[in-house]
Hints:
Blueprint: H1 4-15, E1 67-72, E2 86-92, E3 97-102, E4 108-114, E5 116-122, E6 128-133, E7 138-141, E8 146-152, E9 157-163, E10 171-172, H2 173-178, H3 184-191, H4 195-205
Antiparallel strand pairs: 1-2, 2-9, 3-8, 3-10, 4-7, 4-9, 5-6, 5-8
Helix pairs in contact: 3-4
Amino acid sequence: MLPIPFLLLLLSSILSPSSAADFCVADLTLPTTPVGFSCKNESAVTVSDFIFSGLGVTGNTNNIFKAAVTPAFSSQFPGLNGLGISAARLDFAIGGVVPLHTHPAASELLIVIHGTILAGFISSSNSVYYKTLNKGDAIVFPQGLLHFQVQIGGLPAVALASFSSPEPGLQIVSVALFANSLPSLLVEKVTFLDDAEVKKLKKVFGGTG
């Protein structure tokens, strides 16, 4: 038989209210922490914190990539904070592309809603996995790996993405290389591109140096 004090402790833990919070709605007025946003006071939480309507709105593809990403991360959708999930909508005009990029903090599941998209990723051993996806097809991009999406065919494309983090992070390779003040000579050294090409790309992406 179990000792009486242990039984009393077990019974007390079963009958007492749980100390775990049901949610941690992001307080966007406070700075972020290494584990996400601070929690909004529960008395200030409303149903609007758990609703996001942006995924039904077509993104503006009038840009160099001919594509748009509408994020539903905790900074746009406070109810996601601390839950380990988020989402985004991807819109592609004809010829649209989301170039090589990575999400340092999340894996991604992409589902094609309309049109045709060529999508793939590169493993850490430099193996390449890519395929043409049609409506209803899905692909997963493991956390931290470089991946891309390209619209193909005669129709614009739309996809929905889900992530395994409320703030997956994003770094686009071309923007990281050519939209900053890193000296052109140094960029040439680390990319093996010639001077003319580096300066052309810096001009395209707004970099200096």
